[in-house]
Amino acid sequence: AFKMTPNVVFVLGGPGAGKGTQCQKIVEHFGYVHLSAGDLLREERNKPGSQYGELIETYIKEGKIVPVEITCSLLERAIEESGKKNFLVDGFPRNQNNLDGWNKVMADKVNLQFVLFFDCPLEICTARILKRGATSGRVDDNIESLKKRFNTYSTETKPIIEHYAKQNLVKTIDATRPAEEVYKEVESLFRKGAG
Ligand code: UP5
Ligand code: MG
């Protein structure tokens, strides 16, 4: 169990929308802990002898969403181990399975503040990811994987954003501008206490 009820902001948006970039800035200014579900999965994949290493690798390459039991337990452990209060959960929940799994084991134990949605069209995201792909070493930063990631985002993740929008929990940010400008809008949201 958690020592105190964690505050959680879900951070969603397509591949390359700038979730990680903006989360870093929020961490610097507002003292949140950044938990990227993708980073946690990559870390788990890289652990020698990890039970889930191969599965995670395959899912990431194919742009598919890893079963929620794995992702959710990584998130829960990271929250617990941090001992902190405020969390940016970046790149999760991405599909109905993620949402159901979270609602089953986590939703009652945390305070969901809002969903930060970085809205960015496919063409801009593609350019950003392919540029990053030159140096990132990520197995999914190539045009084949990227097409699959976008497809998963449109068919599976968009409905989750819609689900939260119906509950008036979504704060939408135009993520097409330079990172500093995007952050200005993000900052004012967090200054206001957003939730
Ligand atoms: N950049 C950022 N902002 C910019 C701006 N405003 N203007 C110009 N350039 C900008 O940014 C991407 C690149 O763009 C960087 O080079 C950056 O400098 C530049 P970043 O901040 O990294 O964007 P982000 O939205 O975080 O992109 P990312 O590639 O991380 O998004 P994904 O959602 O695709 O990746 P994630 O790591 O979350 O997931 C990867 C895979 O893991 C998924 O496809 C899935 O297979 C698996 N996964 C699960 O199965 N379950 C989960 O819960 C989470 C992930
Ligand atoms: Mg990211």
UniProtKB/TrEMBL annotation:
Under CDD domains, the record lists: ADK
Where does the record place the region LID? 131-141
* Co-factor requirement: Mg(2+)
Q: Enzyme class, one word?
A: transferase
State the UniProt keywords alphabetically: ATP-binding, Cytoplasm, Kinase, Nucleotide-binding, Nucleus, Pyrimidine biosynthesis, Transferase
Question: Could you say which EC number(s) this protein's record lists?
Answer: 2.7.4.14
Presence of keyword NADP: no
| NMPbind: annotated segments | 36-66
Recite the UniProt cofactor note for this protein: Binds 1 Mg(2+) ion per monomer.
* Location in the cell: Cytoplasm; Nucleus
Annotated residues that bind ATP are located at 16-21, 132, 177
Report quaternary structure and partners: Monomer.
Q: What does this protein do?
A: Catalyzes the phosphorylation of pyrimidine nucleoside monophosphates at the expense of ATP. Plays an important role in de novo pyrimidine nucleotide biosynthesis. Has preference for UMP and CMP as phosphate acceptors.
Describe the family membership recorded for this protein in Swiss-Prot or TrEMBL.
Answer: Belongs to the adenylate kinase family. UMP-CMP kinase subfamily.
Show the HAMAP family listed in the entry.
Answer: Adenylate_kinase_Adk, Adenylate_kinase_UMP_CMP_kin
Q: What is known of its domains?
A: Consists of three domains, a large central CORE domain and two small peripheral domains, NMPbind and LID, which undergo movements during catalysis. The LID domain closes over the site of phosphoryl transfer upon ATP binding. Assembling and dissambling the active center during each catalytic cycle provides an effective means to prevent ATP hydrolysis.
* Identification of the protein by name: UMP-CMP kinase
